[in-house]
Amino acid sequence: MKRFFTCAIMALASASMFAGDYLTNTNQSIQFLRNPSRDASIGIDGVYYNPAGVSFLDNGWHLQFNWQSPHQKRDSRANYGPLFAANYLNPGNAEANGTFSRKYKGRVDVPIQPSLFLAYNHDKWSYQFGFGIIGGGGTCEFENGVGSFEALVGQMAVGQLGAAFGGYSMNSQLTGKSYYFGATLAAARKLTDNLSVSLGLRTMYAMNNYDGSISDITFRTSTGTIIPVQQSYILDCKQTGLGIAPILSIDYRVNRYLNLAARYEMRTRLNVKADASNNDAFNDMATRQPSFAPYLDGVKTRVDMPAMIAVGAQVTPIESLRLNVGYHHFFDVDTKQWNSDLLHDTDEITLGAEYDITDRVEVSAGYQKTMYNQSEANYSDLSFNLDSYSFGLGVGVRVSDRVKLNAAYFQTNYKDHTRVVEGVSRTTYHRENRVAGIGIDFSF
User: Fold this and answer.
1) Based on the structure, what is the number of domains in the chain?
2) Which range marks the domain in which residue 435 is found?
3) Tens digit of pLDDT for each residue in 224-242?
4) What is the pLDDT of residues 185-208, one digit of tens each?
5) C-alpha distances in angstroms, 410 versus 19, 35, 85, 218, 424?
6) How far apart are CA 376 and CA 313, in angstroms?
7) Distance CA 175, CA 327 (A)
8) CATH number of the CATH domain containing 355
9) How many helices, marked H, and strands, marked E, lie in the chain?
10) CA-CA distance, 308 to 24, in Å (whole number)?
11) Phi, then psi, of 51 in degrees rounded to 5
12) How far from 320 is each of 30, 37, 194, 227, 442, CA to CA, in Å?
């Protein structure tokens, strides 16, 4: 029982909902959705992907709005031997080997994930502002629980009843909201006609909300007697915090055929403070268990965003065609965050292409591969990140000399992973992610 809320809260506080590493959302524009290789592209969304390159846009104001709608499945199938058959209200599914399993469905739906980029260029200078949801980004509700929750209650019943064990039941719920809002101010300057550098600061505001309970636990003896467990635990906690990180960027236009760029985002040191209205039972448990301490009223906890480096190249073999390649490395191990001792750094590679069908219409497509290299112990049915590949495609339509519309679809396919704890459990993890979005650019 002690690990119930610990695992759940850790998962909801740290997991990135969309493209990127454990914590960071990199899908910040519709151009990214239709071509995720944006590190050396020249465009207004470069305020996020290539700040130095924005200085090569025309003089004047450049503004972009993006609206995305991500949807994610997080499913697991858990098997704890014959244990789930003892849930007398909801028995598990029988397997051929005599064990019982159950599939647990998790859903994350975000109607709107917005972002905004603004730049003013004048001669050699570019002044920029960006806003987006850099981490988290949605509500995750565990409506029917997960395998580890049920197993904890069942194992507790076995431990207390021994040979008289005849079954168990429980009700539990946990809802978590996690948003890491990022606002960036930056300035870029062209040192030569072909070389530009930039310096920016991103302010990060973290807002996490948790509402959960464990209640209506009952044990059943082998003779059919129902024993209610009186204790219930109620979690009601909000965490907020503020952090700042510098961002450095460089862009070098080798010639009209080749553009090179690099970006380094320093670690965001982020402390969140709890504002909690938990019940006495939860607070009593939290004071005795250090892992629950972050959810006691007034407690501050470090939840850093990792540093990262991105490098990219754009090749223009003919005027109407642009080819892109990029590489990202996230320094996850260096952060102060949940389960940091179980993480390894994340690596990504990206490929993309954009083609102008006419002066008004362009199409693009791209590919991204994400490799977490994580420890086996970092997999749980509440928090699991799977190696994946993503593809995106879309269209841009210039409706006038000053206005451009963008639309795209982006899908991530994950590699299923099965974790076996010998003699205890077997759990298979599965994820799916789909994002659709539209956006509009203005130049004036």
Assistant:
1) 1
2) 3-443
3) 999 998 888 888 999 999 9
4) 999 999 999 999 999 999 999 999
5) 10, 9, 40, 45, 38
6) 34
7) 35
8) 2.40.160.60
9) 5, 20
10) 10
11) -55, -40
12) 20, 17, 21, 73, 21
